[in-house]
Input
Amino acid sequence: MNETTSSLRVHIGFFGRRNVGKSSLVNAVTGQELAIVSDVKGTTTDPVYKAMELLPLGPVVIIDTPGIDDEGALGELRVLKAKQALNKTDVAVLVIDASVGTEEQADQELIRIFQEKQVPFIIAYNKIDRVAGSIPDVLDTVTPDPYAAPRIRVSAKNKTNIDMLKERIAALAKTEEPKLRLVGDLIDPSDFVVLVVPIDKAAPKGRLILPQQQTIRDILEADGTAIVVKEYELRDTLRFLGKKPRLVITDSQVFAKVSADTPPDIPLTSFSILFARYNGLLTAAVEGAQALDALEDGDRILISEGCTHHRQCDDIGTVKLPRWIRNYAGKRLEFAFTSGGDFPFDLSSYALIVHCGGCMLNNREMRYRRQCAADQSVPITNYGVLIAHIQGILPRCIAAFPAFRDSAP
Output
């Protein structure tokens, strides 16, 4: 489980005002010194992400955030980063200093955001070791909770109720919807699936990139057979295979060659399109690709990647896609780029958003980005869908999915 990608881990975020003991509580929950602890307000200046194993949950990402009440111009940026961390948070812990009580504006604002983003949360009253007298009466009087969120009194210093807090987090983190599949629901046991995998110069030497790894794993879990070839080996492989594959899945960058080499009666799609379906983006991405045909001179396009990597001279996001889009549209266009966790709040200046497959982002983050685009009426598509549209093969490449089978040519 230590090799579980961050996108498949439960993301647990600790939020609250400065100096309420968020970092101390993170350390107590994890049993490690993950976060720097100090009595000085504002010690945590940026969200800290740590992938680890946490019983009874298993693989998780712990997020320690700056204080939501930080001040000044720099403080505003820190607060913005804390709020952005919520976009990928599966379970939030609102930390309140029990010796001080609730601060109406900051704490209630966080609760409002939790509810708006539909993030399940726990209210943890920390530092109960500093509260004299009847702890339950004092806290219930100070903070009546109209939101019915689970509440727990803890002490990071004395490790009081830390195990109980972890159990409450685990209960909230239980998946509410069936586990999604990348490709396993499209195949039957013993089916052949051919994967076309160009050697990616951006991938570490000796490794496949993450979408390819995850697709192979899902095929094996469905008791199918994964056959991996380079793009110039596909034609001969299909001819000598002896059994028609159920599906051909390719890297989107070689769509044109792979489509030409794959007989029309064999379904074809790409890793990027599989991830668009997995992340709930496929319908919006197919609709968004149509915006390519309506672009005008001066339009701005945002190209957003969920990961950060060393860019090669012919990088897909910053070089190839802008070139292909300009050639297809025949317009003078402007491009902006984001990567990793950065994604603009204000999308109104863009005529189109082109997103990567999102293999490094969890489903909550991808839903947030899709909803941001929808709320601001900005078309959004993804790399594979856009490239297939440019190549004129999009109907074929989505016909493998039940919801789109009528789209086949």
About this structure: Confidence is low (pLDDT under 50) at residues 134-146. The radius of gyration is 24 Å. The first helix runs from residue 22 to 30. Residues 19 and 41 are 5 Å apart (CA to CA).
